[in-house]
Design a protein that fits this description.
With 161 residues, the chain is mainly α. It has helices at residues 2-7, 17-26, 45-56, 93-100, 110-113, 119-138, 143-155, and strands spanning 31-33, 59-60, 72-73, 81-85, 105-107. The radius of gyration is 17 Å and the shape is globular. 30% of the residues are buried.
Length: 161
């Protein structure tokens, strides 16, 4: 994440993140911080979703609103896992599940270590929140609208949450 400040965050020099992501994928990289949308790190939702698709999907249709300026067929080139981190915690889980889906890395630093009961209960809380959101999504529930209620319901059977 720290390299982004030097390479692709500056408006007057460097390269765009889209170029960096493609270069990483073509060189066999396995993961990269793709932005988070929620938490403390900035990022527009549609553009971040475009980056996530660019990293993972085999075929990406042109969609200027998401920063995809031409159709890209990656054929059989393996994808790259998008990583989200930076101020994320259990209450962000519905949005993270909706934005990143199943094939991603969610790094909960302070969201785990800052749990009032300690690190292990913090990890349990994150896992329970993730499983509750994935189950709700798979049942067809609207994570954007019902996310907080899904977390509250899960906390009834998981005191760590």
């Amino acid at each position: 994440r720290a390299m982004h400040a030097v390479i692709d965050r500056q408006k007057n020099h460097g390269m765009h993140f889209r170029v960096l992501a493609k270069a990483l994928r073509m060189s066999g990289g396995d993961h990269i911080h793709a932005g988070t949308v929620v938490g403390k790190l900035e990022g527009e939702r549609d553009i971040t979703l475009g980056f996530v698709d660019l990293l993972r999907d085999d075929f990406i249709e042109k969609d200027r609103s998401r920063g995809i300026y031409f159709t890209q067929d990656w054929v059989s080139l393996p994808g790259v896992l998008p990583v989200a981190s930076g101020g994320i915690h259990v209450w962000h889980m519905p949005a993270l599940t909706e934005i990143f889906g199943d094939d991603s890395v969610l790094q909960f630093g302070g969201g785990t270590l800052g749990h009032p009961w300690g690190n292990a209960p913090g990890a349990v809380a994150n896992r329970v929140a993730l499983e509750a959101c994935v189950q709700a999504r798979n049942e067809g529930r609207d994570l954007a609208r019902e996310g907080n209620e899904i977390i509250r319901q899960a906390s009834k059977w998981s005191p760590e949450l």
